[in-house]
Amino acid sequence: MIPRKNLFKLIVPFLTVLLLAVPVLYMGSTTKQFGDDLLGKAKTMGGYGLETLLWLASAWLMTRALDVFLWDGFFLNRRKVQVAKLLKDVVAFQIFLLAVAGIMGVVFKIPLTGFLATSGAVGIVIGLALNKMISDVFSGIAINIEQPFNIGDAIELENGVLGRVVEISWRTTSLQLYTDTLLIIPNGQISSMQIKNYNRPLQHFRLSLEICLDFAVPTERAFRILTAAAESVSEEPQIDCVGITGYGLKYRILYRVPDLSVYSGVRNQVIVSVMHHLYQAGITPIYPKQEVFLGKIPIQEIGRETNKVELLSRIDLLKTLTHGELETLADQLKSREVQTKETVVQQGEEGNSLFIIEEGLLHVFVRQEDQDADIYVSKMEAGNFFGEISLLTGGKRSATVIAATDCILYEIKKEHIASLLESRPELVHRLSQALAEREMNSNQALQQLNAKEKNDAEERLSQQFLEKMYQFFSFLKG
């Protein structure tokens, strides 16, 4: 179905052709001969002018009809393909060129052979002078015929330039880069390059990020960490071990980018996420370096056992503990491996422990009373923790947590905290205050209060948590 606004484009050229055709047909062949009087000459010149305008108006009408029925009607509306401006201009130029030939041969009765011979000689001279420009024009025609890319496609040139095609003109192709700048490349140059088209065969595309890790990092651990890091940003990432270098194993992360406009942002998020998950695991990327030892070379240790104290120190809830208390708590922690899609905690079940995520990605689901299914609410990455209410008050689990990837967790149990509270009972006040602060930060309704209301609400929450902790750790009542 042709839009009505496009049909309106045909009205003016159609009426022009109609108005010119009527007098031309009326005057007939008598206006072709010059008369002796001034009126006869005027009528003859008017006849030439009207027929010339009729040819040009017909060419105009034909180009408009092609725009409405072919370029926009068939390709754009039905095939969802935007035809490049260059192809439209080439066809329009051919139509008007035929109109000019018709004017010379039919209206003015001029033989076209001499005209073609003269124009051929002139064309050779112009061709030699404009060799580069003509090459660009024909390259542009070839691009439109072969269509290695269309307007709107995201392409990468062999020199690493990445951008979206916004126009293919007679001589150049314009790319809008992800930096919001316009790059204009001659068609002759771009036609000789190797081009990656990221929108074929699918509209979305994948980009890669390569990172090198030490040989001492087990491959299954590297896959677990990198998968969690990439999946926290992009859907269905792909992690591959692509090579062995002189200093480590090289891993490639393929992540999905929905559109070129968010290319820079997605890439930034993937890099930040990868570095965050590696940091939480106590691993740094490997790069070429030289170390000089003047003695026995120490054994390099890469393992989770060496960074448990640092892992605990990054948890806000435990920021009031001394270094010695963190070491005592770290000695009691045991790691737990969780497989993908395994449920860690279930909403409503009893609990008395807190979990710390060292490696992996988990999804959080909540079910309301009036609902029949769990609803996804958030994700938790390496360095996050959950279950603090159950650990300190014995409260039931408030959400269901399921592993999105393979994970490594540490579990702090009631007896671990009880031993600390027995040696330093005043910790109970600081822990209740930390619970209140965390509740204030996570509750959207409490965020709307003014400063005084927030302070009052935080004090009430702290007192409520304190009372529950006294009940849960009964030895504190004395």
How does this model look, in words?
With 478 residues, the chain is α+β, with helices and mostly antiparallel strands. The protein has 4 domains: 4-129, no CATH class; 145-197, SH3 type barrels (Roll), CATH 2.30.30; 205-280, Alpha-Beta Plaits, CATH 3.30.70.100; 307-477, Jelly Rolls, CATH 2.60.120.10. The protein has 16 helices and 16 strands. The chain has helices at 4-7, 11-27, 38-78, 85-107, 112-129, 131-146, 187-190, 219-231, 263-280, 308-313, 323-332, 388-393, 414-423, 427-442, 444-447, 451-472, and strands at 154-157, 162-168, 172-177, 182-186, 195-197, 205-213, 238-244, 249-257, 335-338, 343-345, 353-359, 362-366, 375-380, 385-386, 400-403, 407-413. Residues 29-36 have low confidence and may be disordered.
Largest beta-sheet details: 5 strands, antiparallel
Tally of separate helices: 16
Average predicted local confidence, pLDDT: 81
The CATH H-level homologous superfamily of the largest domain: Jelly Rolls
Oligomer: single chain
Q: How many domains, in number, for the residues? A: 4
User: Cα distance, first to last residue?
Assistant: 85 Å
Please summarize what this structure is:
The protein is α+β, with helices and mostly antiparallel strands.
How does the SSE layout of this entry go?
Elements: H1 4-7, H2 11-27, H3 38-78, H4 85-107, H5 112-129, H6 131-146, E1 154-157, E2 162-168, E3 172-177, E4 182-186, H7 187-190, E5 195-197, E6 205-213, H8 219-231, E7 238-244, E8 249-257, H9 263-280, H10 308-313, H11 323-332, E9 335-338, E10 343-345, E11 353-359, E12 362-366, E13 375-380, E14 385-386, H12 388-393, E15 400-403, E16 407-413, H13 414-423, H14 427-442, H15 444-447, H16 451-472
Antiparallel strand pairs: 1-2, 1-5, 2-3, 3-4, 6-8, 7-8, 9-16, 10-15, 11-14, 11-16, 12-13, 12-15
Helix pairs in contact: 2-3, 3-4, 8-9, 14-16
